[in-house]
Design brief:
single chain, alpha+beta, three-stranded antiparallel beta sheet, about 5% strand
Length: about 1900
C-alpha cells in the first residue's frame, strides 16, 4: 500500500491551515490567495514563497494518492476510489484562486486577454474539422486557415478549396512565413506591438509561482500512471484510464493557452526553464514520493531502450537484474514483474528483428553519431519530459492540442521544435510498436507539419540539431527492421536485401509520418541544399533507396495457378512513390539552374555507386534471370531523373555524367525487362499469377505513378540506346521480347521460348515499344507546357473528361511541395486551347450529366497522338476508344470515310544530347527485321496483324523523317553489291537500303515446311552467309551473335568465358512442347527490295493490280511542297503512299526505282487456282452472306417495332393519340373494351371470372399537404432567425378545420364534411399496361423464387411491369362493361331538374348489394386492402370512435379526392391547357372510381342524414333539431366541403353513372358553393360595406331574375345572418379578417369566381374521366365560364356580349331565399354559443398555390457553414452526418443512433411523418440529395455544381459550388409527379438505418 503510506507522509507535514471548516472554503481560498499575493509582492518575498510552496505541496499532492488509487486495485477495494474526482476538482479550484490572486478567475482571464499581442490565429483543430486552403495566398503548400479567418479575409477569385482535415492542423492566419500577408483576415492583419500595453508585473506573478508546481504534478501523474505494456496485451485501456483522470488538468492548461500571448509567454518560461526542472524533478530530495516518481521515470526511459546519460549518478550501483529499490518494485504493483524481466523482453524483441542472422547490416550502423541519435535521451526541462510522456502515451489528443496551442509563442516554437527533433528516434520506435499506428501517425503529422513547414525554423534546426542526419538515420533504422534477402537474379548467392512488402510497417504505411516530414523539410531550399552538399548523407540515402530496389519480385507461374494472390503490390507501389519518388521530386525542384550542377553530379555519382553495388550484390553479369520481374527500380529512376534535369535545366554535358559502355549495358537490362514483361502480361502469359499481376502492370502506367516509374524507365532506355551500338540494342529488344525466332523469311518456324498463341501479341509489343522509344520526347526536348498539352490531348482523345478527372489524370509532379500547382494558370490556359466545354445536359431518363471537356476539331486534325495514348492508357480498351472517336471525327468532318489508321504525328526536335537515339532507325538489324516483316505480311504468313504492319510502316516513316541528310545518293549506289559480302544491306542508311534488292535468303525451316519441296536454285545470293546458328534463328540473327561477340570484345573478356555465361542460359530455358521436327536449310528466292514490297503491299491492300501510280508524274509540285493534307489522315493505303512519297523526296535514285517498279506490270500476288473444293466453300460463303443479310433485315424491323413501342410506353408527355389499351370505338354497335395481357400476350375483355387489371403503383403522398397559400416560396433557413413553421400549409389548415368541427359537432357528420388525404393520401398511378390477374399471380410466384437480387421486395407485393419495367406494387381490376355505355348514358334527357333530383335520391337510397363472390369482386376487395395498407393508420383514422365505418367511408372518397387534386397539380394547378389529360393514357381514375364506388355502396347513409336532402328540400320541423341539447348537432351544411359532397354523392350512385344525373348533382352543389362564397365574402368585409350591400340588394329583390343576381343574394345572406351573433364580435382580432380594399362589383365578382374555381376544376376533371369528354382549352381569365359551360351549368342560350357574371350559372332546385334562410338558420344556432369559431369555419381558404420544395441559396457554402456545426434539436449533439429535409427544412441526423426511436433512425422516421414515406434530404457533408421512398432509398445526385459543371460528392475537392436550377427543377418535378420510383434506377433497402 505505497499509496496509503505516501498519503500519511504528506498528511504529517500538513500545515494547520488544512483544518478549515468546509462551507467557508471558497471564501478562504480567495482570502489566502490575496494574502499570499500581497506577501509575494513585497521586495523580500522569501517567506511568502515558502508559504506558497508549502500550500502547493499540500494542495497538489492531496489528490495524487487518490489518482494513483484509481489505478491500483487495492486502494479502490479499501474504499479510497470514490473521492478521486472531488480532490482533483478541489486542487484545480485552488490553482484558479491562486492564479487570480484573490480576485475572480473569470475577471482574471479577461484581464490577461486584454494584453494579448498575438497577431497569429493559431487555432488548433483535430481530424474531420473543416478548414480552407488558398493556393494563391500560401507560401507553404501546407498552409491552412480556419473557416472564420478564411471568411474574414478576402479570397475572391483565388484558387482555394475547403477540405476536411485528415490529421488535424492549425490556422496559419497572421504567420507571414507560411502565407502572404494579403490573405490575412481582418483580425490578424499585423497589429503593431505599440498599441498593446505592457503587462503589469503583479497580474501574472502568481502564475509564475504556481504553474511550475502544477506542471510537475502533472508529470508525476504521468510517471505514476505508466506501466510498460506486458508483451502480449496491449495496454491501451490502462493508459486511457490515466488520461481520463488527467482530462481536467490538461484542459485547464489548454484554457490557459487560450488566454493569449501574455499567459503563453509565462507558460513558455515555466516549460523551458531548466533550473526549475532540476530542482523539482531530480528525485534527490528527502521527499519519498518524488523519489519514487523519479525512479519510475528512469524505468520508463530504460524500458524504451533509451539510456539516461547520467545513469551513474542514481542508478550506477543497482544493476537492473537485482531489481531496483524496493519502493519502485512496489510501485510497479507487480504488473510487469521486476525490471530485469522487462529489459530482457525488450532485448528479445530487438533480436527478433534481426531474425535473418546473415542479414547485411548497413554500413552506417557502426557510426557513433548514429548510436547517440538512436538511443540517448536526456531531459532538461518540463517541456522535454512532457513530450516524452506524450509520446509514451501515444500522443493523446488533449496533450497534442495543448502543445500546439502554445506555438504562437515564438520562443516556445523554437524550443519545442528542438525537443521534437531530439525525440525523433523515440517517436519512430513508439510508432512501430503501436497498435493504433493510424491514429498515432495522424497526431504526429499534426504536430510536425506545424513545425517543419516553416523554412526559417527548419533551417535553424537543421543547423543546430542535425535534423537531416536524424531523419535519414531514423528512416534507415525503421526500414532495417523488415529486410529480407532479395531473390532477384541469383537466388542462392545474392547479398542484396530488400524490404519485405508483407510486413505491417509497409502494409499499413506506418512509415508515412516520417517520410512526410522528410519531404516537407526538403521542400525548403536551404535545407535541401545542405542535403545535396553532404556526401555522407547522400550515401546513407542511396543506401535507404536501395532497400526498395527490386522489392516485391514476381516469378512467373508456369504450371498451375497460384493458390493465394498476394496483395503486397499496393504496399510496394505506395512505398516507392512515397519513400523514394517524392523525396526525389523534392530534391529535383532545387536543381533547376546552372549553378546547381554540382548537386546533380553528387547525386549521380552516389547513385551509380549504389547501382554498381547492387549489380555486384545480386551477382549480375549480362543476362536477366528468366520469368522474373520487379517493377521497382528506384535507383535507376533517381539516376534517370537527375540526368534528365541535368540536360534540361543545368546545361550539363550528358557524357560527363554517363558511365562506361559496360555499365550502360547493365543499366538497360532491368527497365527493358519491365517493358517486355508488360507485353507478356497483356498477352496473358502471366495469367497463372492471378489478377494482381495485371494490377501491377496497370499501376505502373497509372497517372499518379507514371512519371515516377514508366517515364524515367523509358528515358533511361532512350539514353542507353543513344549511346550503345544500335544493332546490339535492337537485337536485345527482340531477344527480350522472345520473338527472335519469328523473324524469319520462312513460312514456318519454331520458337523455343514462346508459345505460338503469344507470338503475335509479343511481336506487336516489341514493335510498339520501339515506336514509343523512338517517338517519345517527354524528356528529350519538350518544354513543360508542351508536355502538359500532349498529356491533356491524350486524355481527352480517349474520352470526354470532367475538369476534376482531367486534373487527376494528368501526371503532376507527385511531390505536392514542388510548386507546380494543379489548376495553375498554365493548366487552365492549355485546357481552353485544346478543348471545348460541354455544359451538363438533362436527359428525360433522369441520368444527370456532368460538365465535360471534349477535344476541339483542330486537335483531332493535328494533335491526336496515338503513341502518347498507348503510353498513357491503363486499360487497353481506351486505345480503341480513342481510335473510334478519331474515326467518328474524320467521318463527320468528311476527311476520311473508311476505317483510318493511327495518324503519323510530327515530333518535337530532339535535344542535341540525344541525337544518337536516331541511329536505331539506321542500323542493318532493324532494316532486316522490317524487310522480313514486310515480306511475311505480303506472303500472308500466320501470326501477323494489321497492327504489326502499322508499326512497321511507322518505323520506316520515322526513319525517313530522321535520315542523315549528308549522304549523297550517287556514291552510295556505285560501290553497291561488291562491298557487302557479310550482310544483307550495303550501308546503314535506311534511305539507300530501301532500294537495295535482296535476291536469295538462306533459312532454316522444319522439314515439313513447303519451302523444302522446291528445288532450290544455285546459291548465287549476294548474301549467302557461312554457317548458320543451330537454333531456328533466321539469317538476320546470326547477326545478333556477331554483335554479341563484338561486345564481349569491347568489354575485354575472353570470348570463351562469355559464351559459357551466355549460351547455356538460352539453350536450357525450356524446349518447345512435343518432339521438335528436324530443321533443314532452304534457300528462298526473294528478289525484292523494301520499296518493291511497299508497292506490292499497296496493291494488296487496295485489292487492285497496279493500284499505285507515283503522284509526282502528274503533279511535279508534290515534290516541292510535300506537306499535303490529303495524306495526313487515312488507312494503310494512305500510309504506304505517304512513305513512298517521302522516300522519293529523299533521293533521286529512290524516285527512279519506284517509277521503274511501277512500270513493270506486276503479276498478281500469290496466284490462286480455284479448285472444286474451294468453289464449294465459296458457295457456302455466299449462302452465309445472304442469310446474314436476311437476319440484319429482320433485326432492323424488330428494332423499329421496339422503338415505336418504347415511344408509346416510355415517354412521359406523349400526346393522347396512342393508348396502349386502345379502345377502338368507331363502330356504333356495342363492343366490349378489349385489353392485352402483357404476360400471356392474349387480348380479350375483362370478365367476372378472369378479370384483367392495370399495373399500378400505390404510394402514400403528402405533396398536397405542402401547398401553401402565398406565392413567395419558402427559403431553406440558413440563420438561427429564419425558421419554417408549418401552420400555413394545406395539411395543417385542413387538420385544424377537422378538429374544430369535431369539437362541436357530431363525429359521424364531421367525417362527411371534409376530405382527408392531404397528408398520407394514397396516389394511384399506372404505366397503362394490363395483365390477367391470374397471370400476375404466377408472375409474382416466379419472382419470389428468383434468386437474383432485386431492387424491390416481392414479399411486399412489389414488382416491375413485365413490359416496360416500371415499378409497381398492385393490380387494379378493370370493371367489365361495354365501352359504348358512354354514348347511351350521355344522351341529353329533357327531364327537368326536379325529376332528376328525385331519381338521384332514389338511386342513392338503394342498398348496394355486394356482387356475388366472383374472382372480380375478390380482386376488388384485395386491391382495396392494398390501398388501405399503403398509408399509415394515423392518416386513415380520424374518427373519435376507432374502427367506425365512417372512417372507411371518409378514407375512400378522400382517395378519389387525392388523385383528382394531384392530377390538377400535375396540370399546373388549372385546366387552361385543356386537351386530353397529360397523364391521359396513364390515368386509372375510371377504374379506381369503380373500385371505390363498389365499396362505398356497402355503407348506406341514413336517408335522414343524407346531405342531399338538406340541399334539395326545405325541412319543416325546424325545432326538433334544437330540442335534444345533450346530443351534439350535425355539421351545418354551409360548413361542408362542397368537393367532398360531390364525391360522396357520385360514389353513392350505382355505376356506371348517367350524365344527366351527374350534371344535376353538380348544379345542386354549385348553389351551395355559391352561397358559401357569399357568406365568406360577407364575413370578410367591413360593417359599412355590409350595410351598404344589404340595402342595395334589398331594392332589387323583386326583379325577375333576383335569384341569379349576386347583389340580391348577398344582401339576403347578410340580413339572414344578422339575426344571429355572427357579425357581433367586432373584437380586436376582427381587424385581421377585414381586407383594407374597397370592394367594387368587379372585385366581388372575381372573389366569387376564385372561390368557386377549385370546385369547377375538380368537377371537370371528374367528368373528363367518367365520361371521356375532352377538356376545352382557354385563357386564364375565361377559365370559369368555359368550365361552367362544359359542366352544363350555363344555360345554352346564354349570350356572351356583356361581362360574364358567375351568378348566371345558378339553377336553384327550390326557391333560393327559402333554402338560404334554412342554411343560415343552422349557422345562427351555432354562433349563438361560439361566434369566434363559427366565423373561422366560414372563411375557407380555397386558393392554394402549387407545392414547391424549399428555395435553396445560390452558393452551397452558406448552407454548409450553417448546418455542418449545427446541433441537433433532439440529441443536442453536432451530428456526424447532418441532413436537412428539402420539403420542410427540418434538420436531422442521418444514421444517428442518438435519435433512434423504436429501431427507426431519424431520417426514415421523418420521411414517414413529413412525406408519408417519401423524404428528400440534402446531406450537408456530401452535397448530395438522398431520396427515401418507403423501405428503399437512393442517392439522387447533387443540385449544386462547381464552376465546371461537376458535382462534388462528399465535398472531396472543396471547390465553391453553385445551385443548378435546372437540376433542382427536375428534382421538384419528380417529387410532385411521384416518379422517383420510375426514373431513378439504383434503389437499395435502408433497413430503417438512415
Amino acid at each position: 500500500m505505497a499509496a496509503a503510506a505516501a498519503a500519511a507522509a504528506v498528511g504529517g507535514s500538513q500545515s494547520p491551515q488544512a483544518e478549515l471548516p468546509a462551507p467557508g472554503l471558497a471564501l478562504d481560498k480567495a482570502a489566502t490567495a490575496a494574502h499570499l499575493k500581497a506577501a509575494l509582492s513585497r521586495p523580500d518575498n522569501r517567506a511568502g514563497a515558502e508559504e506558497l510552496q508549502a500550500l502547493l505541496e499540500r494542495v497538489l499532492s492531496a489528490e495524487r494518492p487518490l489518482a494513483a488509487a484509481a489505478d491500483g486495485e487495492e486502494a479502490a477495494a479499501a474504499g479510497g476510489g470514490g473521492g478521486a474526482g472531488a480532490a482533483e476538482e478541489e486542487a484545480l479550484e485552488w490553482c484558479k484562486c491562486l492564479l487570480a490572486g484573490g480576485g475572480g478567475y473569470d475577471e482574471f482571464c479577461a484581464a490577461v486577454r486584454a494584453y494579448d499581442p498575438a497577431a497569429l490565429c493559431g487555432l488548433v483543430w483535430t481530424a474531420n474539422f473543416v478548414a480552407y486552403r488558398c493556393r494563391t495566398c500560401g507560401i507553404s503548400p501546407c498552409m491552412s486557415l480556419c473557416a472564420e479567418c478564411f471568411h474574414q479575409g478576402d479570397h475572391t477569385g483565388h484558387d482555394f478549396n475547403m477540405f476536411r482535415s485528415q490529421a488535424g492542423g492549425a490556422c496559419d492566419c497572421g504567420d507571414s512565413n507560411v502565407m502572404r500577408e494579403s490573405g490575412f483576415c481582418k483580425r490578424h492583419q499585423i497589429k503593431s506591438s505599440s498599441n498593446i500595453p505592457c503587462v503589469p508585473k503583479d497580474l501574472l506573478m502568481m502564475s509564475e509561482f504556481v504553474l511550475p508546481r502544477f506542471i510537475f504534478c502533472l508529470i508525476q501523474y504521468l510517471r505514476e500512471g505508466y506501466n510498460e505494456p506486458a508483451a502480449d496485451v496491449p495496454s491501451e485501456k490502462d493508459l486511457n484510464k490515466v488520461l481520463q483522470l488527467l482530462e481536467p488538468q490538461i484542459s485547464f492548461l489548454e484554457d490557459l493557452t487560450k488566454m493569449g500571448g501574455a499567459m503563453r509567454s509565462v507558460l513558455t518560461q515555466v516549460l523551458t526553464n531548466q533550473q526549475n526542472y532540476k530542482d523539482l524533478t531530480s528525485g534527490l530530495g528527502e521527499n519519498a514520493c518524488a523519489k519514487k516518481s523519479h525512479e519510475k521515470y528512469l524505468i520508463a526511459l530504460k524500458s524504451s531502450g533509451l539510456t539516461y546519460p547520467e545513469d551513474k549518478l542514481v542508478y550506477g550501483i543497482q544493476e537492473p537484474s537485482a531489481g531496483t529499490s524496493t519502493l519502485a518494485v512496489q510501485g510497479f504493483a507487480g504488473a510487469t514483474g521486476t525490471l530485469g524481466q522487462l529489459d530482457s523482453s525488450d532485448e528479445e524483441d530487438q533480436d527478433g528483428s534481426q531474425g535473418l542472422g546473415k542479414r547485411k547490416r548497413v554500413k552506417l550502423s557502426s557510426n557513433t553519431k548514429d548510436q547517440s541519435i538512436m538511443d540517448v535521451l536526456k531531459h532538461k526541462s518540463f517541456l522535454e519530459e512532457l513530450l516524452f510522456w506524450t509520446i509514451k502515451y501515444e500522443f493523446p489528443q488533449k496533450m497534442v492540442t495543448f502543445l500546439l496551442n502554445m506555438l504562437p509563442d515564438q520562443e516556445y516554437k523554437v524550443a519545442f521544435t528542438k525537443t521534437f527533433v531530439q525525440h525523433y528516434a523515440f517517436i519512430m520506435k513508439t510508432l512501430k510498436k503501436s497498435h493504433e499506428s493510424d491514429t498515432m501517425s495522424n497526431r504526429i503529422v499534426h504536430i510536425s507539419v506545424q513545425l517543419f513547414s516553416n523554412e526559417e525554423l527548419a533551417r535553424q534546426v537543421t543547423e543546430e540539431c542535425q535534423l537531416l542526419d536524424i531523419m535519414v538515420t531514423v528512416l534507415l533504422y525503421m526500414m532495417e527492421s523488415c529486410l529480407i534477402k532479395s531473390e532477384l537474379q541469383d537466388e542462392e548467392n545474392s547479398l542484396h536485401v530488400v524490404v519485405n512488402c508483407g510486413e505491417a510497417l509497409l502494409k499499413n504505411n506506418t512509415y508515412w509520418p516520417l517520410v512526410s516530414d522528410f519531404i516537407n523539410i526538403l521542400s525548403h531550399q536551404s535545407v535541401a541544399k545542405r542535403f545535396l552538399e553532404d556526401h555522407g548523407l547522400l550515401v546513407t540515402w542511396m543506401n535507404f533507396v536501395s532497400f526498395f530496389q527490386g522489392m516485391n519480385l514476381n516469378k512467373r507461374e508456369l504450371n498451375e495457378h497460384v493458390e493465394f494472390e498476394s496483395q503486397t503490390y499496393y504496399a510496394a507501389f505506395a512505398a516507392e512513390l512515397e519513400a523514394c519518388a517524392q523525396p526525389m521530386w523534392g530534391l529535383l525542384s532545387h536543381c533547376k539552374v546552372r549553378e546547381t550542377q554540382e548537386y546533380t553530379r553528387n547525386v549521380v555519382r552516389y547513385c551509380l555507386e549504389a547501382l554498381q553495388d547492387w549489380f555486384d550484390a545480386i551477382n549480375f553479369v549480362d543476362e536477366p534471370a528468366p520469368n522474373q520481374v520487379t517493377f521497382h527500380l528506384p535507383l535507376h529512376r533517381y539516376y534517370a531523373m537527375f540526368l534528365s534535369k541535368a540536360v534540361k535545366c543545368q546545361e550539363l554535358d550528358l557524357d560527363s555524367v554517363l558511365p562506361d559502355q559496360e555499365m550502360l549495358m547493365k543499366l538497360m537490362i532491368h527497365p527493358l525487362q519491365i517493358q517486355a514483361s508488360l507485353a507478356e502480361i497483356h498477352s496473358n502469359m502471366w495469367v497463372r499469377n492471378g489478377l494482381q499481376i495485371k494490377g501491377q502492370a496497370m499501376t505502373y502506367v497509372q497517372s499518379h505513378f507514371c512519371n515516377s516509374m514508366i517515364d524515367p524507365d523509358i528515358y533511361l532506355l532512350q539514353v542507353c540506346a543513344s549511346r550503345l551500338d544500335p544493332d546490339y540494342f535492337i537485337s536485345s529488344v527482340f531477344e527480350r521480347f522472345k520473338v527472335v525466332d519469328l523473324l524469319t523469311m520462312a513460312s514456318q518456324h519454331q520458337n523455343t521460348v514462346l508459345d505460338a498463341e503469344h507470338e503475335r501479341s509479343m511481336l506487336e509489343g516489341a514493335l510498339t515499344f520501339l515506336v514509343i522509344l523512338l517517338s517519345l520526347r517527354l524528356h528529350l526536348g519538350m518544354s513543360d507546357d508542351e508536355i502538359l498539352r500532349a498529356e491533356m490531348v491524350a486524355q481527352l482523345c480517349m474520352n470526354d473528361r470532367t475538369h476534376s478527372s482531367l486534373l487527376d489524370l494528368i501526371p503532376e509532379n507527385p511531390n505536392p511541395k514542388s510548386g507546380i500547382i494543379p489548376g495553375s494558370y498554365s493548366f487552365e490556359s492549355v485546357l481552353s486551347a485544346v478543348a471545348d466545354f460541354k455544359a451538363p445536359v438533362f436527359e428525360p431518363g433522369g441520368s444527370m450529366q456532368q460538365g465535360m471537356y471534349t477535344p476541339k476539331a483542330e486537335v483531332w486534325d493535328q494533335e491526336f497522338d496515338p503513341v502518347m495514348v498507348i503510353l498513357r492508357t491503363v486499360y487497353r480498351r481506351d486505345v480503341q476508344s480513342a481510335m473510334d472517336r478519331y474515326t467518328a471525327f474524320l467521318k463527320q468532318s468528311g476527311k476520311f470515310p473508311g476505317n483510318p489508321w493511327p495518324p503519323y504525328k510530327k515530333r518535337t526536335p530532339l535535344h542535341p544530347s540525344y541525337k544518337g537515339l536516331m541511329r536505331l532507325l539506321h542500323c542493318k538489324t532493324l532494316h532486316i527485321v522490317l524487310f522480313t516483316l514486310l515480306y511475311k505480311i505480303l506472303m500472308d504468313h500466320q501470326n501477323l496483324s494489321e497492327h504489326v504492319l502499322c508499326m512497321v510502316l511507322y518505323l520506316i516513316e520515322l526513319g525517313l523523317e530522321n535520315s542523315a541528310e549528308e549522304e549523297s545518293d550517287e556514291e552510295a549506289s556505285v560501290c553497291g553489291p561488291e562491298r557487302c559480302h557479310d550482310s544483307w544491306f550495303p550501308g546503314s542508311n535506311l534511305v539507300s537500303n530501301m532500294r537495295h534488292f535482296i535476291n536469295y535468303v538462306r533459312v532454316r525451316v522444319p522439314e515439313t515446311a513447303p519451302e523444302v519441296k522446291r528445288d532450290s536454285p544455285a546459291s548465287t545470293s549476294s548474301d549467302s552467309l557461312g554457317s548458320l546458328q543451330n537454333s531456328g534463328t533466321a539469317q538476320v540473327f546470326s547477326l545478333v551473335a556477331e554483335r554479341r561477340k563484338k561486345f564481349q570484345e569491347i568489354i575485354n573478356r575472353s570470348s570463351s568465358e562469355a559464351n559459357q555465361v551466355v549460351r547455356p542460359k538460352t539453350s536450357n530455358k525450356w524446349s518447345a512442347p512435343g518432339s521438335a521436327p528436324q530443321l533443314t536449310t532452304a534457300i528462298l528466292e526473294i528478289k525484292e527490295s523494301i520499296l518493291s514490297l511497299l508497292i506490292k503491299l499497296h496493291h494488296k491492300l487496295s485489292g487492285k493490280q497496279n493500284s499505285y501510280y507515283p503522284p509526282w508524274l502528274d503533279d511535279i509540285e508534290i515534290l516541292i511542297q510535300p506537306e499535303i493534307p490529303k495524306y495526313s489522315h487515312g488507312d494503310g493505303i494512305t500510309a504506304v503512299e505517304r512513305i513512298l512519297l517521302k522516300a522519293a523526296l529523299q533521293s533521286r535514285m529512290n524516285k527512279r526505282i519506284i517509277e521503274e517498279i511501277c512500270r513493270k506490270v506486276t503479276p498478281p500476288v500469290p496466284p490462286k487456282k480455284v479448285t472444286a473444293a474451294e468453289k464449294k466453300t465459296l458457295d457456302k460463303e455466299e449462302r452465309r452472306q445472304k442469310a446474314r443479310e436476311r437476319q440484319q433485315k429482320l433485326l432492323a424491323e424488330f428494332a423499329s417495332r421496339q422503338k415505336s413501342f418504347m415511344e408509346t410506353a416510355m415517354d412521359v408527355d406523349s400526346p393522347e393519340n396512342d393508348i396502349p389499351m386502345e379502345i377502338t370505338a368507331a363502330e356504333p354497335q356495342i363492343s366490349e373494351a378489349v385489353y392485352d395481357c402483357v404476360i400471356c400476350g392474349q387480348s380479350g375483355p375483362s370478365s367476372e371470372d378472369r378479370p384483367t387489371g392495370l399495373v399500378v403503383l400505390l404510394q402514400a403522398s403528402s405533396v398536397l399537404g405542402q401547398c401553401r397559400d402565398n406565392i413567395e416560396p419558402k427559403k431553406l433557413p440558413i440563420t438561427e432567425e429564419e425558421q419554417i413553421y408549418p401552420w400555413d400549409t394545406c395539411a395543417a389548415v385542413h387538420d385544424v378545420r377537422l378538429s374544430l368541427l369535431q369539437r362541436y359537432f357530431k363525429d359521424s357528420s364531421c367525417l362527411l364534411a371534409v376530405s382527408i388525404g392531404w397528408e398520407g393520401g394514397v396516389y394511384v398511378q399506372t404505366c397503362g399496361h394490363t395483365l390477367h390477374i391470374d397471370c400476375h399471380k404466377s408472375y409474382m410466384e416466379s419472382l419470389r423464387n428468383d434468386q437474383v437480387l432485386q431492387g424491390f421486395s416481392v414479399d411486399k407485393g412489389e414488382f416491375t411491369c413485365p413490359l416496360c419495367r416500371q415499378f409497381a406494387n398492385s393490380v387494379l381490376p378493370c370493371y367489365p362493361g361495354s365501352n359504348v355505355e358512354n354514348n347511351l348514358w350521355q344522351r341529353p334527357s329533357n327531364k327537368n331538374i326536379q325529376d332528376l333530383i328525385k331519381e338521384v335520391e332514389e338511386l342513392q337510397g338503394r342498398p348496394g348489394a355486394f356482387p356475388s363472390e366472383t374472382n372480380l369482386s375478390k380482386e376488388m376487395e384485395s386491391v382495396m386492402k392494398d390501398i388501405k395498407n399503403t398509408t399509415q393508420k394515423k392518416y386513415r383514422d380520424y374518427s373519435k370512435t376507432p374502427g367506425s365505418p365512417d372512417n372507411d367511408f371518409l378514407f375512400m372518397y378522400s382517395v378519389a379526392r387525392t388523385n383528382l387534386e394531384l392530377e390538377l397539380i400535375h396540370r399546373g394547378g388549372n385546366l387552361c391547357s385543356g386537351g386530353a389529360s397529360t397523364a391521359g393514357k396513364r390515368s386509372c381514375l375510371n377504374q379506381l372510381f369503380h373500385v371505390l364506388a363498389l365499396h362505398m355502396r356497402l355503407y348506406s347513409i341514413d336517408s335522414e342524414y343524407n346531405p342531399w336532402r338538406k340541399l334539395t328540400q326545405l325541412v319543416e320541423e325546424v325545432n326538433s333539431q334544437l330540442g335534444n341539447e345533450e346530443q351534439q348537432p350535425e355539421v351545418p351544411i354551409l360548413y361542408h366541403d362542397v368537393t367532398s359532397l360531390l364525391l360522396i354523392q357520385i360514389l353513392m350512385m350505382p355505376q356506371p353513372l348517367r350524365k344527366d344525373h351527374f350534371t344535376c348533382i353538380v348544379k345542386v352543389l354549385f348553389t351551395l358553393l355559391y352561397t358559401q362564397a357569399l357568406v365568406a365574402l360577407s364575413v370578410k368585409c367591413s360593417e359599412e360595406d355590409r350595410s351598404a350591400w344589404k340595402h342595395t340588394g334589398a331594392l332589387k329583390k323583386n326583379t325577375c331574375d333576383a335569384e341569379k343576381s349576386h347583389e340580391v343574394l348577398l344582401s339576403f345572406v347578410i340580413s339572414e345572418l344578422s339575426k344571429g351573433k355572427l357579425y357581433h364580435e367586432e373584437g380586436t382580432q376582427e381587424c385581421a379578417m377585414v381586407s383594407p380594399i374597397a370592394w367594387s362589383p368587379e372585385s366581388m365578382e372575381k372573389y366569387l369566381q376564385d372561390f368557386c374555381l377549385p370546385f369547377l376544376r375538380i368537377t371537370s376533371l371528374l367528368q373528363h374521366h367518367l365520361f371521356g369528354e375532352d377538356l376545352p382549352s382557354c385563357q386564364e381569365e375565361e377559365e370559369f365560364s368555359v368550365l361552367s359551360s362544359c359542366l352544363g351549368l350555363l344555360p345554352t342560350f346564354y349570350q356572351t356580349e356583356h361581362p360574364f357574371i358567375s351568378a348566371s350559372c345558378l339553377d336553384w332546385p327550390v326557391p333560393a331565399f327559402d333554402i338560404i334562410s334554412q342554411w343560415c338558420f343552422e349557422i345562427n344556432g351555432f354562433t349563438e354559443r361560439h361566434a369566434e369559431q363559427g366565423k373561422a369555419l366560414l372563411i375557407q381558404e380555397s386558393r392554394w398555390k402549387l407545392p414547391h420544395l424549399l428555395q435553396l441559396p445560390e452558393n452551397y457554402n452558406t448552407i454548409f457553414q450553417y448546418y455542418h456545426r449545427k446541433t441537433c434539436s433532439v440529441c443536442t449533439k453536432v451530428p456526424k452526418d447532418p441532413a436537412v429535409c428539402l420539403v420542410c427544412g427540418t434538420f436531422v441526423c442521418l444514421k444517428g443512433l442518438c435519435c433512434k426511436q423504436q429501431s427507426y433512425c431519424e431520417c426514415v422516421l421523418h420521411s414517414q411523418n413529413c412525406g408519408a414515406g417519401t423524404g428528400i434530404f440534402l446531406l450537408i457533408n456530401a452535397s448530395v440529395i438522398i431520396i427515401i421512398r418507403g423501405h428503399r432509398f437512393c442517392l439522387w445526385g447533387s443540385v449544386y455544381l462547381d464552376a465546371h459543371g461537376e458535382e462534388d460528392r462528399d465535398l472531396r475537392r472543396g471547390k465553391p459550388l453553385y445551385i443548378c436550377k435546372e437540376r433542382y427543377k427536375v428534382l421538384e418535378q419528380q417529387w410532385i409527379s411521384h416518379t422517383f420510383d420510375h426514373i431513378n434506377k439504383r434503389w437499395g433497402p435502408h433497413y430503417n438505418g438512415l
